[in-house]
Design a protein that fits this description.
two-stranded antiparallel sheet; Rossmann fold; 14 helices; alpha/beta; 5-stranded parallel beta sheet; Helicase, Ruva Protein, domain 3; about 45% helix; about 325 residues; 2 domains
């Protein structure tokens, strides 16, 4: 299949797979033993979404975010979220220029292709909300003036579990804007041994070189949008999301935005597998990472340890597969 990508250029689906493979290989040279997490991060990038990496400290959350940024020749900015961080520290501020006798906008670190938000839940909800507009609308409004963000634009946020000291829970509106959540987990013994050899003397990030340009990423995102989704599969996605809204274990189900994110991510996963069409396996594999972090369990479900991940897995198991013609 040939995918038209504007400016008279044509890229085949093989081109997409090869470029994505180069990015994945570059990240794997830094992150040991986490191929599933790397693949999910790539899927979200091609789905033009944002990713939330959640786990305990020291398992490579920030390293994965930085490696994804450095593997592409995109503008990367890092924001360290702290309790005293202000919204203007993220978006920018209008400052008075004495020489020109007028206010001028000083852009904040959010004006980049890839924004790494480290420990996002250590900032107050007010500061976290500074990302709401830019994540959804790809623009920043300061003093009544809107400034567009250059595409591709992706927020890669890391957070520690809310049980840990000094953290604030992410608001529901904030979590809903993240396409997927990645849990890193501890590495295997073999991967940890390899990490000692690889990271023992210096950081591999220091020698990491970009393997794709921002233009490549834009082309790949455009290609993913053209991946075919059958009507039966669209109905299947809606059935899965609708089931979360009536599940007795949940007091908050998935939003229509979640439906859209699940469809986009399924397209990206299909493209990474070299297919120009989505199959039910794509939707099932992504249902947990895309939906679970948006759901709120009831108090009774929390006591019984019926967490959203298990609820989504049960819904996927119980929902009939679509009949593909």
């Amino acid at each position: 299949m040939v995918l038209e990508m504007g400016a008279g250029a044509e890229r085949t689906l093989d081109d997409l797979v090869q470029v994505a493979h180069r990015i994945g290989t570059a990240i794997e040279s830094v992150i040991e033993g986490k191929p599933d997490a790397i693949r999910l991060a790539l899927t979200v990038l091609l789905a033009e979404g944002h990713v939330l990496i959640e786990d305990v400290p020291g398992v490579g959350k920030t390293m994965l975010a930085k490696a994804l940024g450095r593997s592409t020749q995109c503008a990367v900015q890092r924001i360290q979220f702290t309790p005293d961080l202000l919204p203007s520290d993220i978006t920018g501020v209008s400052a008075f220029n004495q020489e020109h006798r007028e206010f001028e906008f000083k852009a904040g670190p959010v004006f980049a292709n890839i924004v790494v938000g480290d420990e996002i839940n250590r900032a107050s909800p007010k500061t976290q909300s500074a990302l709401l507009e830019c994540m959804e609308e790809r623009q920043v409004t300061v003093d009544g003036t809107s400034y567009p963000l250059e595409r591709p634009f992706m927020v890669i946020a890391t957070q520690n579990p809310v049980e840990m000291e000094g953290t604030y829970p992410l608001p529901e509106a904030q979590r809903d804007r993240f396409t997927a959540r990645i849990s890193m987990g501890y590495p295997s013994a073999e991967a940890e041994l390899a990490m000692l050899d690889l990271h023992g003397s210096s950081s591999p990030l220091d020698s990491m070189e970009p393997v794709a340009s921002a233009s490549d990423v834009r082309d790949l995102i455009a290609a993913v949008r053209r991946v075919h989704v059958a009507e039966a599969l669209k109905q299947y996605v809606i059935s899965l999301v609708t089931a979360t809204r009536s599940a007795p274990e949940l007091r908050l189900g998935a939003s229509p935005r979640a439906t859209l994110h699940l469809l986009r991510a399924s397209r990206a996963r299909a493209a990474l597998d070299g297919r120009d069409f989505v199959i039910p396996d794509d939707v099932q594999a992504l249902a947990g990472p895309v939906l679970a972090h948006r759901l709120l369990p009831t108090a009774e479900a929390m006591v019984e340890r019926q967490l959203p991940d298990r609820v989504v897995a049960g819904i996927v198991e119980q929902t009939p597969l679509p009949r593909m013609r």
